[in-house]
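Researcher: I've been going back and forth with a colleague about how Transcriptional regulator might be arranged in three dimensions. Neither of us has a model we trust, so I'd like an independent prediction. The organism is Listeria seeligeri FSL N1-067, in case that matters for your notes. Sequence below.
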Amino acid sequence: MNINELITFKAVVEKKGFSTAAEFLGYSQSNVTKHIKKIEETVGFPLFDRGWKSTLTKEGELFYKEIDNLIDHWKSIRAISEEIAAEQVGEIRIGIIESLAKQLLPQIISWLKTHRPKMNAFFEMGNTQRLTELVQQNELDVAFVGETDSLSSELEFKKIAEDEIVFITLKHHELLNKKTLLLEDILKFPLLYGDKTCLSHQRFIAALQKDKLFSEQKTHYICSNQLLIPDILTDNQIGIVPRSIANNKATNIITLSITKKDFQLVYGAVTKKKEYNYLKNTIDAITELVLH
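Model: Here is an independent structure prediction for Transcriptional regulator. You can compare it with whatever you and your colleague have in mind.
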């Protein structure tokens, strides 16, 4: 039984006959008869007394009283099905690392409000390692993270942007008077950077080890939320953060110019490789939105 058969039944009753209903609907009379038989097979009772008057049975009268509700129900099912097919409903779970959050969140929320107004969105903040694991565990649909060398073969990475690690300090720091700054100069001062899960931490430590400078570190402080680093710098401390974070902060922060240039970061969208993904079009559209 489908909505067309229900509409046919309604027409037969209201047009007072099979032939008039057929003419009204643009069907052949045999098709009208087939529709009525289909309904009767489904419900298990006759709708009409057999005869040329098309008189409703008692069961048919009761069924007719509910016909508008049934048709409305089928229309609702059809509308919901169309929304599902067009990825207009459901939930999307998005992970974003701290350094991208301030830039990407407003764009994504605005796009969802316009193009997916009925879709719920869940946002998870965290570091690259954790968010990538959540995608692999099917707890996130997509994560905007930094590029790593340890990406699982179950996942794919699509580049969306580039960034770099910068060294920041407060105005009037004594290193601002030095024309040429080497990494060794930075190590003479207290350093403030993210924990070992942060890409900036990993890149910085790798650079120190490569140049055999790791043991030259003096005082250093670890902040698990690198978004806070520009706000909590004091005295002669030097903060190590992605440029995207430094650019969003107050004017009392100065970026030091270091001659070493191998502190590049790459950001991208991580998704799980699947034969079928209900949210593929939505994820692709959001990824294109933030691509730059």
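Researcher: What would you highlight for our discussion?
Model: I'd start with this: The mean pLDDT is 89. After that, consider the following. The CA atoms of residues 43 and 263 lie 71 Å apart.
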